[in-house]
Automatic annotation (TrEMBL):
Coiled coil: none annotated. Function in general translation initiation by promoting the binding of the formylmethionine-tRNA to ribosomes. Seems to function along with eIF-2. Signal peptide: none annotated. The keyword Secreted does not apply. Belongs to the TRAFAC class translation factor GTPase superfamily. Classic translation factor GTPase family. IF-2 subfamily. This is Translation initiation factor IF-2. It comes from Oxyplasma meridianum. GO terms for cellular component: cytoplasm. Keywords: GTP-binding, Initiation factor, Nucleotide-binding, Protein biosynthesis. Residues 5-221 form the Tr-type G domain.
Amino acid sequence: MYKSLRQPIVCVLGHVDHGKTSILDVIRGTSVAKKEVGGITQKIGAFEVDMESFYRASRTEIGMNKLKIPGLLFIDTPGHVAFSNMRARGGALADIAILVVDINEGFKPQTVESIEILKRFKTPFIVAANKIDLIPFFTNIKNISFRDLQKTQRNEYNEELDKRLYNLVNKFYEFGLSTDRYDRITDFSKTIAIVPVSAKMAIGISDALLMLAGLAQRFLERNIEYVGGLGKGTVIEVKKEESLGLTLDTVLYQGSLKKGDRLAVSTRNGPAVSKVKAIFVSGKGKKLLEKSEVFSAQGIRVVLADKLEVIPGSPAIAIVNDTREAFDEIMKES
Ligand code: GTP
Ligand code: MG
Ligand code: NA
């Protein structure tokens, strides 16, 4: 049904603790951030938001209506300095991105690193200026759009917010990027949108999603056309489970993958091939659904027949007949 356009991949990048996972928690209506060890994300996570949920979260159908996509695949990345390879990997997968900056802390080393990744891959992005609830004079309020928030706050608050925003705008300018508060932009093809948000209070999330929808529309219509053929993915996590065998959590970004396909992967001993024993996608809640075939873009769990030492972050490529071609590609991308 949705085979003509694939889901766009939306990557969330930014400095440690600036609120990436918390923003995603608001979007998907769960709480992952609080359960993380030490409150630090240590791996890439992927989850899908269908259009119905997207409309609910963005409180409108404007924007995405013209874009006939099945949903969005969000990718969370760690912001800790130690995980720079995972940030780059997430950035490489992204069609569009959200750069998260704590509005009170401003630019930090991994903010700059994230900007460099976005520039390198020419990824269009919006900026979520998070933690606006910590700005002085904040009057407590929850679950509100940014537009409506301003009417509920004192002038002192709105002035403090603008001061911090313009510090950000100036910083972006130093990096050669033209940005502005999203509701002051007249030409979105020239200026990157900054959306003030608070993940903690669920403020501005609908505005951010609307900007994201606009971005998707401007940049993606050609890029997200579904490319059929061999499934190609990036392995983001490897687990050896007693009952299942070797499982690979993978972002399938191109083509399709079937149960029984042979999959080329990168292992500690070089490229290797194994048969796909089973494929799972996440269903409602924590449940996994088994599928006989999956189409990109999707977060999938692949069970392989052999217990290989697969390297997380490496490519996984389905093979039709020529093994060498897949191996060449594995070597090139590893
Ligand atoms: P890493 O994945 O470790 O890089 O961090 P992150 O960017 O995913 O940040 P995370 O969502 O884990 O949030 C870090 C801390 O900031 C947590 O204690 C959150 O509760 C807090 N936090 C996130 N968003 C907000 C916000 O809008 N306001 C306030 N006051 N705190 C927030
Ligand atoms: Mg996180
Ligand atoms: Na964190």
